[in-house]
Amino acid sequence: MKILLMGNPNVGKSVFFSRLTGTNVIASNYPGTTVGFTRGKMKLDGQVAEVIDVPGTYTLEPTCRAEEVAVEMLKEGDVIIQVVDATNLERNLYLTLQLLEKGKPLIVALNLWDEAKHIGIDIDVKRLEKLLEVPVVPTVAITGEGIKELVLRLTEARAHAFERTDAERWKEVGRISSEVQCVAHRHHTLLERLGDLTIKPRTGIPLSILVLYLVFKVVRLVGEGLITYLLNPLFNLYTPLAMRLSALLGPGVVHDILIGHLIAGKIDYAQSMGLLTTGLYVPFAMVLPYVFAFYLTLSFLEDVGYLPRLAVLMDNIMHRLGMHGSAIIPMFLGFGCNVPGVLATRVLETRRQRFIAATLLSIAVPCSALLAMIMGLVGRYGPRALGMVFGTLFVVWLILGFLLDRILKGESPEIFLEIPPYRTPYLGALLKKLWMRVRWFLTEGVPYVLLGVLIINVFYVLGVVDAIAGIAAPVVVGILGLPGEAAIALIAGFLRKDVAVGMLLPLGLNMKQLIIASVVLSMYFPCVATFAVLVRELGIKDMAKSAGIMICSAILVGGLLNLIL
Amino acid sequence: MEISLTDLGMGKLAIIKRIEGGHGFQRRITSMGMRVGKEVRKVTAQPLRGPIVVEVEGCRTALGRGMAAKIIVEEAPE
Fold first, then answer.
1. Yes or no: is domain B2-75 CATH 2.30.30.90?
2. Which of A6, A9, A5 is nearest to A64 (CA)?
3. Which CATH number does the domain housing residue A84 bear?
4. Within an 8 Å CB–CB cutoff, is residue A194 touching chain B?
5. Is residue A93 included in any domain, yes or no?
6. Which of A366, A331, A364, A367 is nearest to A347 (CA)?
7. Are A300 and A368 in the same domain?
8. Residue A71: domain span
9. What is the reported pLDDT for A459?
10. pLDDT tens digits along A203-239
11. Which of A30, A419, A423 to substitute to test the interface with B, most B CBs within 10 Å?
């Protein structure tokens, strides 16, 4: 049996999915968190049933890629659980009627029941059940309230097929909601007032600058704190062990690969480049703390519901870059990891918008792993040097977006986005989401870091590095002004960008070269994981175009920096 | 007096009278809860022809000026 979780965007389908299947998926407080479907399993009467988390949709006439996915999934389901936002009954009921007309058994979960009660909305559940002729269960998915009853009553899900015109549907919706719902006159709550303050331009723009500043501060504070007080001490404990292994191995190829080069007779975690030294230090002590710190703040902002407000404030700028405000969400996610960032471009309506968003994202939005390494390396030269790297990327983002908007044909649709109320994040849900993302880095990121270091070491041993350096010399040395060996970082960068920046350290670059290398590494090409997603989302042809833009702009910008700095 | 949502004053309450534009557009707007006969309050408008934010039945939605221009309302007394 296949059970579909459907409903309007941002009603809590993903929280339901996690509750029903025990499989965790990312849930947030903004419409469009889920853009693809996730399958999971649950036990039902001793049998295994498949549960599918479907992207949210307002109607069964899709307006963007994510909604198309939702409508396509409808064919697959045997039973539909429609998750309904109890605070917004009317609009949700329209979809209920559309779903009922599909003739599939349906059960309604009246979610956000606590919030509805809190703001003075009273719904007569029994009456609603009678009118819809399907089971209706009040739920609070985030705390698990009502889930059990919902599962018990799943077998009561009913189908009834009838056809209605659009006007008839709305008439029916109006009739039902006026019969079952009683809304007390309510005053605006404190959170609502704050919500409006952060969206009105006069207060919202200064507040958004404050929020972004705080994000930056918290990320640095938490990231650096973890490195200084937790991870460096841990690695200091590990050093004697590694030194003993080094003595045991003695000089030779195996030592070069595992431990790397001793610097003044000692292991230097940043420069030795061994699999068991730098290979462990880079992912765990340089990148992980920043991945953790960034996702901590991102997850908080997501769950509070700030991102859609930022989308409205940024809409004007984004229009000049060929997108609209909603594109700020993929950009923001891209700072964590480019892969979910590219996927999130599905909330945009047209192909042209998605192409621009995905291209700008891969070129000018460094992921948290790359950011961490740039902070670690370039940060040694102070905030001015860091400012040069990020400032350059920001200017590239603006100029390139502006040019793409001019060059590419087609119109830009306008923003049309629901702004959810601010919600107090649940600590448990927040920590779970944070853990999911950190775990993703540990299982999907760290192995590639180790593989990258291993391959590069083998290349050095085999003497391949010199050959590559020779071939790439005209561009790397001639145009970018970097040592020939830096070409190897460009190759490592395809595997993992953080490894690539790590490769630069033993090369003894000066500040100017480090800035150029960091900018070029961010821009020139996506890492393999992002590349795969880009091919899938854009198609081979558009990906080739996008890659052409990446390579050309990276060489151009790197060359310009070499001339100016 | 009927005016478009773009011309409605900030913070003012109005009743939706008509939604112009194509069939698809009308459906999209109504599916978000903005229907003829509903009360709508203009919460904010971003400068430089940026999007406007409206509140319908306690729910806030951002929409572009071009869309807002096609939603015809009549100001309602508070």
1. yes
2. A9
3. 3.40.50.300
4. no
5. yes
6. A331
7. yes
8. 2-183
9. 87
10. 999 999 999 999 999 999 999 999 999 999 999 999 9
11. A419
Task: Judge whether residue A135 has pLDDT over 80.
Answer: yes
Q: Is the pLDDT of residue A449 over 70?
A: yes
| Cβ contacts from A onto B, under 8 A | 96
The DSSP call for residue B77 is: -
User: How far, in Å, CA of A289 to CA of A372, rounded?
Assistant: 8
More confident residue, A365 or A181: A365
Give pLDDT, residue A64: 83
Say if residue A252 is in the same domain as residue A148: no
Here the tokens at position A383 are: 């905030």
What does the mean pLDDT of chain A come to?
91
Does pTM top 0.80 for this prediction? yes
Side-chain half-sphere of A156: how many Cα atoms within 13 Å?
Answer: 15
What's CA A105's distance to the chain center, in Å? 34
- Spell out which residues of chain A touch residue B49, defining contact as CB-CB under 8 Å: 316
Interchain contact A7–B (C-beta under 8 A):
no
The chain-wide mean pLDDT, for chain B, equals 91
A213 in the same domain as A161? no
Q: What angle do CA A144, A147, A149 make, to 5 degrees?
A: 140
Contacts of A94 in chain B (CB under 8 A): 30-31
Do A331 and A399 fall within a single domain?
A: yes
A332 and A366, same structural domain? yes
Local structure of A525: helix, strand or coil: coil
Residue count of chain B: 78
- Are A31 and A67 in contact, with CB atoms under 8 Å apart? no
- DSSP type of residue A481: -
pLDDT tens string A169-189: 889 998 999 999 888 866 677
In A118-178 the beta strands, taken as DSSP E runs, fall at: 121-123, 136-138
The structural domains of chain B, with segments of one domain joined by +, span 2-75
CB of A58 less than 8 A from some CB of B:
yes
Q: Count the domains in chain A.
A: 2
